[in-house]
DNA sequence: ATATTTATTCAAGTTATTTGAATTAAGTAT
DNA sequence: ATACTTAATTCAAATAACTTGAATAAATAT
């Protein structure tokens, strides 16, 4: 198991500059188009400091000037925004049966994707395939490798299952004791971030999704099982050992369905793709793909509706837990599940009354559907890189 | 309701120095006695930078030299440690029936405490009383006001209940719409931090308790209800609106006991001081104080043991939730409950097998008892201040 | 037209860092 | 004992990035 313990290091002029660049980029990301004086006031930096940073970002092509803001007194402020085509990132999702690649521009728009079915996902086989995929993506979008900010590699957690008491069989075989980041940085010769699918998906909603202006939220990820990604003040939570967010094994019914983890009544046995398949298999219906689920829903299939009702009941409980524990601005549902099914689940939720989230003057709905569809995990991988380049690391509480 | 949304600001030389001082102090706190070269390596700063900071900290009296480290090659490294008496902080707990004051030295040792029973906790009455208490504390410990780092004010959450749908009656009346920090900074003329009891208690375990070397952990706080404080990478979680950690209203038994929040089966109705009182009242036993609970436990009172068993069962579920969601290094139990009762609860837990925390090679127990006893909240308040002075704000993930 | 406001530019000035050379002092090998 | 190695420490200079202050530019308001 990899201990991802973090620790704080000292700052110096260079690290400070990196941080300030990110502060500026993050502000522009959330408020574009915007001007230097405005950034200066919001970010607690002198006009001159901001001016220098903007100039550098412009020279690098990350920002572009877009005219001047008129209608107010004083000299019109030059406005800047992201130059979406100035840089890009690649996300790779490693699944037991396939590799998925998504390429995002700096604004987080998906500009290329590819799915490659493979049977052997062992590192020896998958790594060369992934390197080829990344190369293909760069060729397809007609960019140079210098514009590649990095690659985000996503695979299902929890990591380090081999050290655990059979909580979960390693979902992608042979990757358990691999230092994913290191291996890929060597193979791809560019910055790499490795992350689990739920957290990556959560970040993607902030980079270019429903949470772009939200700093604190939970993301419930429908994968094979059920995952959770949490953002607090714009920072993703990772846990002490990288296994943050195993919400699938939270028990929502004592003595309920038997779970692969050995317990009974885990949420994941009621609300996940696998749970739907099992539930319907007993009734003689075989669903293996998301498309089939969408069809059943369209047909108002009573068995599937029954599953949705049960899943929604258990998810409602999970929402109560998340809201009361995290006090988030909102909860986002997303992942490898058709939008229509997620909408149906959200529609049938019975949101708990006794929750700190049950405020009178809410501005955002308590539960939203994510925007990145079922490519979420790969897009999330690419989002990790973009998020890092625009996420500052000095937090000041006011 | 107060929105405590935070945002990152840019850095400059001064802020950088503040940060680096904290990095150094935090390292010394966790590793004392230690030397400059060692700090330099661990904190990613040049020897000279560390040297300058150490010199300043020494001049201010926060650190003291304690001889040289011998036994290794090279010039013996001068060792430094905290000077516990160089500074102090005061914590105030505001309860419905009393004010509690605790004073800590820089190492987090409690050097003075006072409990004052009051009936009127309205701001108009309580604020002058608290100012007097702080003054008395400074006189008692024979220090000057310049050495006061600040005051931490603690009251039960959730805050902003008036805006909520009766989740919880405001526990300390009339404080709901008060900007606690501002009001006390004006009254006390020193830095003030306001926090809920559970989070403050969690921080106290890091400042001088069982979690001094632990960066990521959960603290389950037994107050009137049940609270949760969470530390991730040395930073306390606060939620989007300051109501993080309302674990008491997580449902552990669907359709169970009726709760004041309107729901049924909330954890708090099984495992809290109030739940014990209610449980025993039905059986004709009246317990209003912690001491009485301790006595019942000592006498092996079968009704009380029954309550403990039930509480432990529900707490075990909560532990499963916390471990799977947060992936902490450990979970700490503490608060306004006698140590013996907490120990009895811990003893009777049935820790879930299906948890990411159920690792083979654990070094820390899954559940620990906190060390600060039933003055926890006030000590926690004082700890907030100490924590802030030693907690850096640039996090680097390695 | 003139005053006011705000953004911007240019040119120092400041702070806290890093770098490099020289010094000190202990342990280790001969 | 003596010389060598290792590591901490000190001193002085160089550097990077930010802030400050004065001057200028271009709008709106009176």
Could you list some keywords that capture this structure?
homodimer, 398 residues, alpha/beta, Arc Repressor Mutant, subunit A, Nucleotidyltransferase, domain 5, 3 domains, 5-stranded mixed β-sheet, 11 helices, DNA-binding
Topology record:
Two copies of one chain form a homodimer.
Chain A: E1 7-8, H1 13-31, E2 34-35, H2 36-43, H3 47-59, E3 63-69, E4 77-82, E5 88-94, E6 98-105, E7 110-117, H4 123-140, E8 148-155, H5 180-188, E9 192-196, H6 197-208, E10 217-222, E11 226-232, E12 235-236, H7 273-282, H8 290-298, H9 302-326, E13 330-335, H10 339-347, E14 367-369, H11 376-389, E15 395-396
Parallel strand pairs in A: 5-8, 8-9, 10-13, 13-14
Antiparallel strand pairs in A: 2-4, 3-4, 5-6, 6-7, 10-11, 11-12
The structure holds a DNA duplex (30 and 30 nucleotides).
Low-confidence stretches of chain A: 161-170
**Gross geometry of chain A:** globular
The largest pleated sheet of chain A is described as: 5 strands, mixed
Distance between the termini of chain A: 37 Å
């Amino acid at each position: 198991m990899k201990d991802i313990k973090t620790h704080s290091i000292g700052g110096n002029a260079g690290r400070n500059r990196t941080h300030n660049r990110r502060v500026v980029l993050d502000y522009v990301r959330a408020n574009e188009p915007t001007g230097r004086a405005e950034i200066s006031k919001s970010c607690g930096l002198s006009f001159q400091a901001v001016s220098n940073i903007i100039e550098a970002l412009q020279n690098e092509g990350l920002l572009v000037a877009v005219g001047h803001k008129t209608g107010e007194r004083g000299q019109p402020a030059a406005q800047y925004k992201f130059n979406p085509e100035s840089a890009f990132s690649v996300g790779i999702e490693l699944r037991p049966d396939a590799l998925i690649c998504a390429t995002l521009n700096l604004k987080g728009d998906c500009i290329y994707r590819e799915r490659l079915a493979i049977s052997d996902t062992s590192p020896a086989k998958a790594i060369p395939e992934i390197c080829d995929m990344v190369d293909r993506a760069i060729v397809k979008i007609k960019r140079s490798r210098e514009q590649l900010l990095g690659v985000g590699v996503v695979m299902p957690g929890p990591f380090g299952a081999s050290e655990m008491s059979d909580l979960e069989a390693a979902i992608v075989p042979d990757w358990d004791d691999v230092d994913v980041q290191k291996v890929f940085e060597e193979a791809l010769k560019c910055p790499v971030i490795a992350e689990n699918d739920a957290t990556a998906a959560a970040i993607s909603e902030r980079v270019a999704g429903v949470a772009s202006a939200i700093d604190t939220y939970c993301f419930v990820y429908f994968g094979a099982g059920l995952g959770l990604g949490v953002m607090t003040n714009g920072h993703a939570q990772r846990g002490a050992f990288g296994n943050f967010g195993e919400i699938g094994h939270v028990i929502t019914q004592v003595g309920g369905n038997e779970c692969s983890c050995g317990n009974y009544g885990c949420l994941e046995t009621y609300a996940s793709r696998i749970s739907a398949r099992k539930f319907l298999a007993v009734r003689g219906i075989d669903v293996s793909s998301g498309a089939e689920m969408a069809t059943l829903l369209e047909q108002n299939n009573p068995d599937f509706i029954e599953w949705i009702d049960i899943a929604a009941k258990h998810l409602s409980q999970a929402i109560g837990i998340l809201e009361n524990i995290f006090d988030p601005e909102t909860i986002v549902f997303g992942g490898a599940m058709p939008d229509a099914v997620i909408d149906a689940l959200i529609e049938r939720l019975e949101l708990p009354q006794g929750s700190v989230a049950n405020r009178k003057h809410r501005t955002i709905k308590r539960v939203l559907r994510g925007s990145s569809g079922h490519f979420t995990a790969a897009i999330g991988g690419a989002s990790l890189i973009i998020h890092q380049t625009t996420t500052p690391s000095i937090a000041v509480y006011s």
